[in-house]
């Protein structure tokens, strides 16, 4: 990555077609919610097949107030909605990426079916193919995917406009608050973003979660479902990083069989 005084360039010579374009589309889609009090999103200045230029975020320190404000704002971003579960950013079709791993974004009628078939099973198969997950362990996760696809965990919340890769490295704190970068944006369930933050940690997470729950109107059982939403990031890391994440993936899946 290279920097100028005001821009931050991410580059990848030979990037897959659309890699940076879908990131730009996701950032702009998320940014549409800012006018209604949604989370601050890094601004896109230029995009090309091998790079994206973003506004440089001046570093700052997180505070209890900035984390709480982010919780409220993230709930408003989610409330901006999406056309369907799995819907990509407007104007985009075809695969997107989480990190450098491709994943589909095909509109789907229900969240559980989308999450099972497009966010968990593909990465479980890759983990098996890579030798990071054996067949018996994969069947544990597949059993949960069967429950997800059947609608066992669906609720009445509409598709949310989610970041999709909201770990702490994609959350920057500036002097004026939190700024989100590097999304895998799509129509999903808001708990998926909270689950990613819970898995990899973030400053003042308790304050952020309390503020989010208040603004989003979550019911009391939401914390018990965080592990379910962590199956996606755990599966992606099992595929790319190895057996340590695979073991955590299976242990988490056992709670929801």
What do you see in this structure?
Helices cover 44% and strands 15% of the residues. It has 257 residues and is α+β, with helices and mostly antiparallel strands. It has a 4-stranded antiparallel β-sheet with strand order 1-2-5-4, covered by helices on one side. A 3-stranded mixed β-sheet has the order 3-10-9. β6 and β7 form a beta hairpin. It is globular, with a radius of gyration of 18 Å.
Topology:
Elements: E1 2-3, E2 7-11, H1 19-31, E3 40-41, E4 44-48, E5 51-55, H2 64-79, E6 96-98, E7 101-103, H3 111-129, H4 135-150, E8 160-162, E9 171-174, E10 177-180, E11 186-188, H5 190-200, H6 205-216, H7 226-229, H8 231-241, H9 243-254
Helix pairs in contact: 2-6, 3-4, 3-8, 4-9, 8-9
Task: Give structural attributes.
single chain; 3-stranded mixed beta sheet; 44% helix; 4-stranded antiparallel beta sheet; 257 residues; alpha+beta; globular; 11 strands; 9 helices; Aminoglycoside 3'-phosphotransferase, Chain: A, domain 2
Mean pLDDT: 95
* Shape type: globular
| Count of helical stretches | 9
- Helix content percent band: 40-55%
Strand content: 15-25%
List the strand order in the largest sheet. Answer: 1-2-5-4
Order of helices and strands: EEHEEEHEEHHEEEEHHHHH
Q: Please indicate the count of domains.
A: 1
CATH topology: Aminoglycoside 3'-phosphotransferase, Chain: A, domain 2
Stretches where pLDDT falls below 50 for ≥5 residues?
Answer: none
């Amino acid at each position: 990555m290279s920097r100028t005084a005001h821009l931050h360039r991410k580059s990848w010579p030979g990037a897959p077609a659309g890699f940076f374009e879908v990131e730009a589309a996701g950032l702009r889609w998320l940014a549409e919610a800012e006018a209604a009090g949604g989370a601050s999103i890094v601004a896109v200045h230029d995009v090309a097949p091998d790079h994206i230029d973003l506004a440089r975020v001046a570093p700052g320190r997180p505070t209890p107030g900035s984390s709480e404000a982010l919780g409220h704002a993230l709930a408003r971003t989610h409330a901006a909605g999406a056309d369907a579960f799995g819907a990509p950013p407007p104007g985009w079709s075809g695969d997107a990426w989480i990190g450098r791993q491709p994943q589909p974004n095909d509109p789907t009628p229900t969240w559980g079916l989308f999450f099972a078939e497009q966010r968990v099973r593909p990465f479980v198969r890759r983990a098996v193919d890579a030798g990071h997950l054996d067949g018996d362990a994969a069947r544990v996760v597949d059993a949960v995917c069967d429950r997800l696809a059947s609608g066992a965990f669906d609720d009445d919340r509409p598709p949310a406009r989610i970041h999709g890769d909201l770990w702490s490295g994609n959350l920057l704190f500036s002097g004026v608050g939190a700024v989100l970068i590097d999304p895998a944006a799509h129509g999903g369930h808001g708990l998926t973003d909270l689950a990613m933050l819970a898995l990899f940690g973030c400053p003042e997470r308790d304050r952020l979660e309390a503020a989010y729950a208040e603004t989003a109107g979550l019911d009391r059982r939401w914390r018990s479902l965080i592990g379910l939403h962590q199956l996606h990031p755990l599966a992606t890391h099992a595929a790319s990083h190895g057996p340590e994440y695979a073991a955590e993936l299976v242990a988490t899946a056992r709670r929801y069989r």
